[in-house]
Protein: Exoenzyme S synthesis regulatory protein ExsA
Amino acid sequence: MPQKLVNVAAMPGAERRHLYLPARDRSFWTAEGEQLPLLYLAWGARDFHRQPIPVSRHEGWVCVLIEEGAPTMVVRRQAVRMPAGTLALVGPDCPFGWKGATSGASKFRMWMWRDFTGTMGPADLRASIVSRPLARHERQPFLHLHDLCRREVLRAAGPAGTYLEGCRILFDTTIQRELLDRPAGGEDGSDTVALARSWMRAHLDSHEPIARLCDYLNVSQSTLYRVFAAAEGMSPLSWFHEARMARAHELLVSSALSVKEVAHVLGYEHGNDLSRAFRRRFGETPTTRRARQS
Structure:
């Protein structure tokens, strides 16, 4: 993923604190004076080209996830383009506004929290904006969390502060992991790759390893291929075959299992299937390798 942007130059200034509300028929909710952890929630389409939002500071911590379009966030006098998939956290002392792209409306999810406990080294997050683009599978936790908040604030009985506080704690932790603790070079995919390696080692008998692995990780095959190849220098399927052959070799030279039994352990239907794969990899049959190393 591209490097995340950390703009710590946006320091407190004369901009007043003000929340510019959208038109009444747009989708949003405000706490309206209630002492709740969540101050503001918004979602849906906005056309910032036709209705720009003036630059101002805010009472709480703003987080926005762009679902569609590419609006421009104005931080003081600097224009920051926010393409689809961008996640941004803006501190209460960082003045910002919105202006739109000429391409039309944008779709987004937005929160404003009263408090935030995350940290990022020495950076003054209260006066900063931190953002990075998210892959599709990385957006799901934030979409789910926004759905939880939206359902709660729209309850007929009104939102419960304890429930929203639980959402805030989950939000803080997710932002810390997915945004603030990410390496400066962007997503390295190390968690995904480690989980993929572990799963494949434990499922060398799988007949559809990549499809099942993607189900397990909840990622697309293209995403898995990209992060895995960047880390390992080969495709996940090639790594799976290498691990399978390494395990076959280990069992042949260190156990009393027959070639047919080793083939069964590794998911081959017939011993000959293992023999052909083994010969392609090592240049000799399993029987020859076993005899030579016994």
